[in-house]
Amino acid sequence: MTKASSPNADQELIEAIAKLLNEQNLAEIEIERDDLRVRVTRSYATQAVQQVAVPSYAPAPAAYAAAAPTAPAGSAQGIAPASDDLSSNPGTLTSPMVGTAYLSPEPGKPVFASIGTKVSEGQTVLIIEAMKTMNQIPAHRSGTVTRILVEDASPVEYGQPLVVIE
Predict the structure, then answer these.
(1) Do 29 and 59 fall within a single domain?
(2) Which residues are in the Lipoyl-binding domain (predicted)?
(3) Measuring CA to CA, which residue among 124, 125, 128, 73 is closest to residue 100?
(4) How confident is the model at residue 81 (pLDDT cuts 50, 70, 90)?
């Protein structure tokens, strides 16, 4: 009989935790009771980071626009379509989060992948630090790295192209 009533008690506990999470404006809460462990999180913290981080990225396009007139006219025209091609290219690996991209596991260590490196699906190609957590970013397909679109220790946005794997 206790097992039959346990799911209801568990559901009530989860609802109470979620209510506490909202009332106290917490991002995460974890509770262990008997053989039950419940962790409730909400993603509003990531959205707040995006809102704060976006203005710091706004000057970057202006820097590229300022650099374009110094290049020959033919190459400046080739720059704009390349970004459009990246979004439709199935080989483009995009950032799953806002953070800082690192091409190697630690300063002074070899990079995970460089141009021409053959990678297999699931192999780490870079890491993104988000909220003091290092997140390994795996290759979404097997192939050869043809372009690396970010610099080491550079800020990245959600959905930003990082690497092209052909």
Answers:
(1) no
(2) 90-166
(3) 128
(4) very low
Same domain, 59 and 114: yes
Structure tokens at 88: 């439709």
Least confident of 3-7, 50-54, 143-147, 157-161: 50-54
Q: For the chain, what is the radius of gyration of the CA atoms?
A: 22
Instruction: Tell me, yes or no, whether 35 and 58 share the same domain.
Output: no
The answer to whether residues 86 and 159 belong to one domain is: yes
Q: Give the list of residues 6+ apart from residue 121 with CB closer than 8 angstroms, or none.
A: 138, 139, 140, 141, 142
The domain total for the chain is 2
pLDDT computed for residue 85 by the predictor: 66
d(CA 132, CA 116): 30
Bridge partners of residue 137, in order along the sequence: 126
**29: buried, middle or exposed (CB in 10 Å: 19+, 13-18, 0-12)?**
middle
pLDDT at 60: 43
pLDDT above 60 for 82: no
Provide the domain limits for residue 17.
Answer: 2-41
Q: Are 33 and 80 in the same domain?
A: no
User: How many residues belong to the chain?
Assistant: 166
100 shares its domain with 141: yes
